[in-house]
Amino acid sequence: MNADRSTSRRSYLCRTLVLLAATFAAHAAFAEGPQSTPSIFAPAGTPAASIFDLSLFVIAITGGIFVVVAGLLTYAIVRYRHKKGDEKSEPAQVYGSTQIELAWTVVPVLIVVVLFLTTARLIFAIQDAPRPKKTLDVTVIGHQFWWEFHYPKLGIVTANELHIPVSSNQQPQAVFLKLYSADVDHSFWVPQLAGKTDLIPNNENVMWMDAKHPGLYVGQCAQFCGVEHAKMLLRVYADTPEEFAAWVKNQQQAAVVDPQVEAGRELFARQSCMNCHTIKGTPATGHYGPDLTHLMSRETIAAGAAPNTPAAMKEWIRDPDSVKPGALMPAMHLTDGQIDQLVAYLETLH
């Protein structure tokens, strides 16, 4: 029995050490820059890098504690395993030892204090960081189950895909986000760029990020907000200065008016689509759903649940629940011909 317990303890220790080694190996395996899945192991912004350094510090301390405790436990199991004749003897008693009781009281308190002060210092350092001369202000509104982005100084409103300029040592530029919720609690989290920040109804929260490498950074809502919480995805595009300027110029334009898709445009206006969505330059001024003025400039639809392709768009309009079960967009019960007309119109919204 004792031999089985000793084997089990050693096996547990080995599995834990392998897990820690895999964690550090995963970090080493990630190259600098964007990743295809949310990752805390490849920070690409100042807040994310600071949080990652803190996590390594915590892992080092807790890992050291584990090694010491597991080592002592393994030693005790092996050294004092049951032997013949032990029934008549009693191990040494340490009850009442002031030194030992002080040690296992003071040392944990000191460890907790160190972790608390280090974490608090990092939180305040991130929150109170000075604003660079060049900053971009963005207002983020969380909806069930999509993201709305306002660029107040640029006059741009878009959805689900946030574009920001890259920050470099020569031209440092940070993005400051004001976070609001239109309904329930949400949480904005792009792990490679910054930590989690909640969006709370009737409350303003703030955060900032500075992407050091161009590319796509993915994240999602990190607070359960309803049926489709898991598919409330985030895509942050860090653009070069030239790419960002071109994107801004395009987003500031009104919607394209193409006479070849007049039937689809009229269908959009006749249906309840215009009551939920805005298309700049048209009578459609709804705010319940995403702004569609430049819909085709996005790579995904339904907050990242599907690619932005004609086939996916048709299925999304025909039956939103088949693409994103629990989505609040209603099925419009259109004929196949009407859906084709509507998609043809939406495809002109670049």
TrEMBL record:
Give every Cytochrome oxidase subunit II transmembrane region profile domain span: 32-130
Where the record annotates domain Cytochrome c, the positions are: 259-350
- Lipid bilayer topology: Multi-pass membrane protein
Q: What is its EC number?
A: 7.1.1.9
Give UniProt keywords alphabetically. Copper, Electron transport, Heme, Iron, Membrane, Metal-binding, Respiratory chain, Signal, Translocase, Transmembrane, Transmembrane helix, Transport
**Annotated localization:** Cell membrane; Membrane
Q: Where does the UniProt annotation place the signal sequence?
A: 1-28
Task: Give the catalysed reaction(s), semicolon-separated.
Answer: 4 Fe(II)-[cytochrome c] + O2 + 8 H(+)(in) = 4 Fe(III)-[cytochrome c] + 2 H2O + 4 H(+)(out)
- Membrane-spanning intervals of the chain: 55-78, 102-124
A Gene Ontology cellular component where this protein is annotated is: plasma membrane
Q: Which CDD domains match?
A: CuRO_CcO_Caa3_II
**Residue span, Cytochrome oxidase subunit II copper A binding domain:** 133-250
Q: Which cofactor does it need?
A: Cu cation
Q: Member of which family?
A: Belongs to the cytochrome c oxidase subunit 2 family.
The entry's protein name is: Cytochrome c oxidase subunit 2
Please spell out the taxonomic lineage of the organism that makes this protein.
Bacteria, Pseudomonadati, Acidobacteriota, Terriglobia, Terriglobales
